Amino acid sequence: MADLDDLIAQVEDEGLRSQLKARIDLLTRQMKFGLVFERHLPESIRAFNAIPRVGDTVQLRADTAGGDEYFVERLTKRRAHLVSTTTGESLDVTPRQLVVVKRFGDPAFPALRPLGEVRRHPDRPSHPVICGENFHTLQLLRYLYRGCVDCIYIDPPYNTGAADWKYNNRYVDEADRWRHSKWLSFMEKRLSVAKDLLSPTGVIVVTIDEHEIHHLGVLLEQIFVGYLIHTVTIVHNPKGTGKYNFSRVNEYAVFCIPDTGDNVIQGLPTDEADVLTGKRTVIHQDQAEDDDDPGDDSDVEELVDADEAADWPFPTDERDDWELRHARRRGGESSYRHQRPNSFYAIYVNPTSGRIERIGDSLALDDVADMNEVDGLVPVWPIDKEGNERCWRLIPSSMRQLLDEGRMVLGQPSSDGRSWTINLWYPKTKRKKYKTVWWSTQHDAGTHGTTMLHRLLEQRNAFPFPKSLYAVRDTLLTVVRDRPDALILDFFAGSGTTLHATALINAIDDGNRRCILVSNNEVDAKMTRKLLAKNHLPGDEHYERHGIFHSATKPRVEASITGIAPSGAPVEGKYPDGRPLADGFEENVDFFELVYLDKDDVRDGTQFAAIEPSIWLMAGGVGRRNVSDPAKAYEIADNSNYAVLFNRSKFATFKRALAGRSDVSHVFLVTDSEADYAAMCSRLPDGLTTSMLYRDYLGNFRINTVEAYR
Ligand SMILES: C[S@@+](CC[C@H](N)C(=O)[O-])C[C@H]1O[C@@H](n2cnc3c(N)ncnc32)[C@H](O)[C@@H]1O
User: Fold this and answer.
1) Considering 181, 445, 604, 663, which has the largest number of Cβ atoms within 10 A of its Cβ?
2) DSSP state, 552?
3) What distance in Å separates the CA atoms of residue 378 and residue 110, rounded to the nearest whole number?
4) Cα torsion at 568, 572, 578, 582 (round to 10°)?
5) Measuring CA to CA, which residue among 82, 117, 114 is closest to residue 100?
6) Which DSSP helix (H) or strand (E) runs through 605?
7) What is the pLDDT of residues 586-606, one digit of tens each?
8) Closest residue (by CA) to atom 14 of ligand 1?
9) Rounded average pLDDT over 317-341
10) What is the CB-side half-sphere exposure of residue 683 using CA atoms within 13 A?
11) What tens digit of pLDDT does each residue of 417-436 get?
């Protein structure tokens, strides 16, 4: 307020001055409704990869509690002469002892430095896993995925007072009397950026316990205007905890759901409804081998158009109660021949009449599928495009019954006319609304969080309080069950449970959901003391490898996707449906570190290589990243779906080259002129997603500024 009084005092017109003063007095006397808290300054960034220069603001690397900031006054290879920005005292140290600090308002240029990958399937998009401060990573993600994210799931620090999080590089503990307002400032900034990432039907879920639930609720109401807020109670610790009065067994998942006037949460299939109330303990498990199990039904593109399927086997007015599903099992779970040997048999098709004539018998496991015609009928086997032997949804006797009832529908033939997709008519699955209290043994964070992590990493206490894998799976399913291509984000990733749960869901229905994880690389206080005592400083490899990202997030993601533990042994144990953890998942992952580029390098265009991973992610992370050469006129990625035009004068050649690459979906045009960009876009074929890249890239990737913060 003192600032405002000073400003008003400078107004020369006396009348205007007193009017302004009166208005402001009125405003300050009005009661505020809602959450009132001290907004703390945004955090500063410690940019370990930046080389200190004269004029920079720096801190001492060994000062892990944040510490004083200094101005670099003189610098040689061996000596840095510093002046404290608060006391004015000077200090001489070696440059190696310093870390550059970017304060709020200093623009920073982020890039993603690759840290490795896991490749298990050539055709699936990649899950990006980013090591970085989430506020700045979110600002980069906002550029890449504004309005695209279907589900944000976060499990932020609960602010228990046990120094479980840092603000401005300092732990916030019980003694900090600004504890709550710092937490709210920290969350407000991140949630405001996160909101911009959500698609129009995107949902954010924040888990929390009683320490901050009430503050969080009001904060979410303030930020997520136009959203409905629902709170689900999850019993995550059935044993109970708490010193006085009650034994607490639950925490909360607060859902912010856009108020579209319709259900965004699609409801739980009735056959799974008991799971979340603990009456049944297994979800998605195929209950009866060889039974009439509807299984999954995701790959809708290949289904026959229901309205064109002739001869409905039900009265016309019942049309809305029926749907077509694939006859072949498609999910990763229980869909292979060896898992259901009785459901591997031929379905015989008459190629002339286009009718299914009869159902063969199950084939013994060691017999080979016979592709030859029998009596002029072509056998169709449940073999997928990659040649994997899968199985039909039903055993032969049940399939024959459906054939008799006219519930089998033959789809389009393959190009060689030797195979067809086959669909089955099923009564539509009924859905029930989710209840707001979930009590399931699968949500026990001890067994399915800590013990699961122990199995994956072969190490106890690798990470404190990971979530139950199945609690995260069930939470995500409320939003992405019917969104097989959903984009999911967790920017407080911790041990990476959210990506593991996403892979598990994809395996159920062969979905292509992608999950972006972000975690910092915090080293806990005890380990920090030990490392400093051995002279390992933040930024050193020896120090950083003990941080959360390198010791928990990355190895957990690797072990869950590959099925191989860090020692090289197969991961022990099974998922509830019997699938071994050692199978891993057919998913791809790319690991990155958020680094800050030097402004001068960015400006002269030499940093395109550093920016390319971001561009690749923006285009969907498909195939493999290119290493483009900005000295060329243009590049069309060999093994991915994006192209970049560097030299505007070669637009015509670029356009011709694009015509030969129907797989390219994203085009980046380098120009500083909006008009030029619009003109080029108007000449490109419809259906391409285009983006403008400024020649110096500064306009694209500037973060940490007042504008970026808004
Ligand atoms: C409660 S844990 C999440 C646990 C996770 N759900 C799991 O199942 O493993 C919160 C995580 O957020 C990370 N974190 C805290 N502040 C962060 C920040 N500013 N940027 C990135 N990550 C942060 C912490 O390192 C911690 O691992």
Assistant:
1) 445
2) I
3) 58
4) -10
5) 82
6) none
7) 999 999 999 888 766 666 556
8) 492
9) 80
10) 13
11) 778 889 998 887 778 899 99
Tell me the domains of the chain and their CATH numbers. 1-30 (no CATH), 45-103 (2.30.30.30), 112-275+433-590 (3.40.50.150), 300-427 (no CATH), 601-709 (no CATH)
459-497 per-position pLDDT tens digit = 988 899 999 999 999 999 999 999 999 999 999 999 999
366 burial (CB, 10 Å; 0-12 / 13-18 / 19+) is exposed
Residue 547 CB–ligand 1 contact under 6 Å: no
CB-ligand 1 contact for 133 (6 Å cutoff): yes
What is the pTM for the complete model shown? 0.77
Q: Which of 199, 200, 198, 166 is nearest to 182 (CA)?
A: 166
For residue 109, the cross-strand partners are 597
Structure tokens at 469: 């894998």
Contact between 218 and 256 (Cβ < 8 Å): no
Cβ-based neighbours of 75, under 8 Å, separated by 6 or more: 52, 53, 54, 81, 95
Q: From the CB of 392, is ligand 1 less than 6 Å away?
A: no
Question: Can you give the pLDDT at residue 30?
Answer: 60
Ligand 1 proximity of 562 Cβ (cutoff 6 Å): no
pLDDT classification of 302: cutoffs 50, 70, 90: low
Distance 301 CA to ligand 1 centre (A): 38
